Amino acid sequence: MNWIQVLLIAAVVALLVYLLRSRTNAKAKAWVKVGYVLFVILAIYAILRPDDTTVLANWLGVRRGADLITYALIIAFVFTTMSTYLRFKELELKYARLARAVALDGARTPDR
Fold first, then answer.
1. How many structural domains does the chain have?
2. Could you say which of 19, 21, 33, 53 is the most buried, measured as most Cβ atoms within 10 Å of its Cβ?
3. Would you say residue 46 lies in a domain?
4. pLDDT tens for each residue of 74-93
5. How many other CB atoms sit within 10 Å of the CB of residue 53?
6. HSE on the CB side for 56, CA within 13 Å?
7. Higher pLDDT, 1 or 51
8. What is the span of the domain harbouring residue 79?
């Protein structure tokens, strides 16, 4: 095992620990945590056996394993970006409704 493989595996495991600890609230979905663990397992496998990613890439019609991983990361980035955008739009709408409710609740009739 090369030193770069040890470094990459340590980084992936550290990322998993960080993500699982930051999502320990009750709202965290179990499938998200399963996805994190699956990602770590696949990442460690790809780090230890990089030639297998090339075999999979060739099977899928891509020339190199690195290209396949790049395409997968681009798709994951777009998905994450869109998910974050939609979540922020939803929060913005909730805050606007809350601000309206607070404004109406605190409204007084003008003195004559």
1. 1
2. 53
3. yes
4. 988 888 889 889 989 999 99
5. 21
6. 14
7. 51
8. 3-105
